[in-house]
Design goal:
The protein is α+β, with helices and mostly antiparallel strands and 189 residues long. The protein folds into two domains: 94 residues, Translation initiation factor 3 (IF-3), N-terminal domain (Ubiquitin-like (UB roll)); 83 residues, Translation initiation factor 3 (IF-3), C-terminal domain (Translation Initiation Factor IF3), CATH 3.30.110. It is built from six helices and eleven strands. The strands form three sheets. Strands 7, 8, 9, 10 and 11 form a five-stranded mixed beta sheet that branches. Helix 3 packs across helix 6. The longest helix is centred in the middle third of the chain and has 16 residues. It is rod-shaped, with a radius of gyration of 29 Å. The two termini are 47 Å apart.
């Protein structure tokens, strides 16, 4: 099966399927037609027919015959406007390539040892280098809440350990028994 490739503006290649008279060598094909991608219609159909009949049907309807799956038995073709099909294909590829940033969460306690703090900082650096944000939560209990400023030293020490690759989005926010801060990736100059 020969495929065409077309360069879009951003330089990525999109594999284009065979269309109309480029489709040959099949006795029968499964023709799929949907009038609307959103709603089902009485005119929608999916049926097996002779390739010659499918090409005639596409000409009558003023649509292109697009090869969707050549490995299926029988091969699947779709009746649709080719430019609309390419547009939808590019749109889907663009949505697929978008990077979604997740927020990873790390828990700290007031009495965390220096070694454990460094291990958590290394994990945070790993998350930040992957493009994720890191939510750091310092949980305090009873007496630790009374001495909140002193208790938050481990959080500030954590932020200092991560400063080479991450910066806080805002000042640490205090909630009832927790203090939290969200770190984002540092912009490279």
């Amino acid at each position: 099966m020969a495929k065409n490739t077309q360069n879009n503006r951003k330089g990525s290649n999109i594999e284009e399927p065979r269309i109309n008279d480029e489709i040959f060598g099949y006795k029968e094909v499964r023709v799929v037609y949907r009038k609307s991608a959103i709603e089902k219609s009485d005119e929608d159909f999916s049926r097996v027919m002779n390739l010659y009949e499918a090409k005639n049907l596409s000409r009558q309807m003023g649509l292109d015959l697009i090869e969707i799956n050549a490995t299926a038995n029988p091969p699947v073709v779709k009746l649709e406007d080719y430019s609309k099909y390419l547009y939808e294909l590019k749109k889907a590829q663009k949505a697929k390539s978008k990077v979604t940033n997740e927020i990873k969460e790390l828990q700290l306690s007031v009495n965390i040892s220096q070694h454990d703090l460094e291990i958590k900082a290394n994990k945070a650096k790993e998350f930040l280098s992957d493009g994720n944000k890191v939510k750091v939560v310092l949980t305090m209990k009873r007496r630790e809440l009374e001495r909140r400023e002193e208790s938050e030293k481990s959080l500030y020490q954590f932020i200092m350990l991560c400063e080479e690759c991450g910066v806080p989005e805002s000042m640490p926010r205090q909630e009832t028994t927790k203090t939290l801060v969200i770190l984002k990736k540092k912009k490279q100059n």
